[in-house]
Design a protein that fits this description.
Order of helices and strands: HH
Radius of gyration: 20 Å
Number of strands: 0
Distance between the termini: 16 Å
Structural class: mainly alpha
Number of helices: 2
Shape: rod-shaped
Length: 79
Amino acid sequence: MKKTEFAFSRINFLLLAAGMAVIIIGFILMSGSGSTETEFNPEIFSAMRIKVAPVVCFIGFVSIIGGIMYKPKDKEVKS
């Protein structure tokens, strides 16, 4: 029988998982309490929420694209 070959290797799945973890961290950094009708919360405009967290999410999305595009070097198969 021929061994089944998958489109992604183990390294691809690790890169995808790492990218997804970075995106989740970015969304956690964006979260927090918001303003209500009666009280304004200036924390919604903090640098963490509007600058750092989106950059972290962007890095996560780029790493996921890299994980999809990464092609490991094939080992030569002897016939």
